[in-house]
TetR family transcriptional regulator
Amino acid sequence: MSKAENARISARKTPKQARSADLVATILEAATQVLAQEGAQRFTTARVAERAGVSIGSLYQYFPNKAAILFRLQSDEWRQTHDLLLEILKDASQPPLARLRALVHAFVRSECDEADMRVALNDAAPLYRDAPEAHAARARGSQAMMDFLAETLPDCPAHTRELASELIATTLSSVGKNFSETPRSADEITAYSEALADMLCGYVASLAIRVDWQ
């Protein structure tokens, strides 16, 4: 990605004072509300500025366009989702497969919650998919899953755990994206998550009982 392209979805500047940070927080909260209430097609910087109670010039000091605002929301969501999933995977009070099941449910719910934002970011998709924030989010998620599998499958060869980690991540990402493209009820999300969890937990359980790793 070129610097010019990256600038289109990056914030113009980072707030250094508390007042500036509060302004950015207000803009982002307003953006969240506009996206939820107006939808992707009617999401504009003008509507965000109006909802935030700030001038369009003040908004542009920090965000050059609507894609930059949405990308910031998406980046924040990535971090929040990663923190949630990491907390689930590291919860030693629960057995490993219970943690994996909880992770699947949390991930699918998150995908459904983010569906409107993905639609709104569609035009900038080629940019944000390759952005440093996107790579960092994927790397953190991959490492968290590898650590979990090392704990869960200590006798499993490293290359098999790597394959399992990639397969789980790819399955979650692809299935979650496809499922969330259609509006879903809470019951549908729960039922789908449970079925997906059954499949992935069954796969990990099969690796745990194998005796021949050749």
Notes: Residues 66-89 form the longest helix (24 residues). The chain has a mean pLDDT of 86.
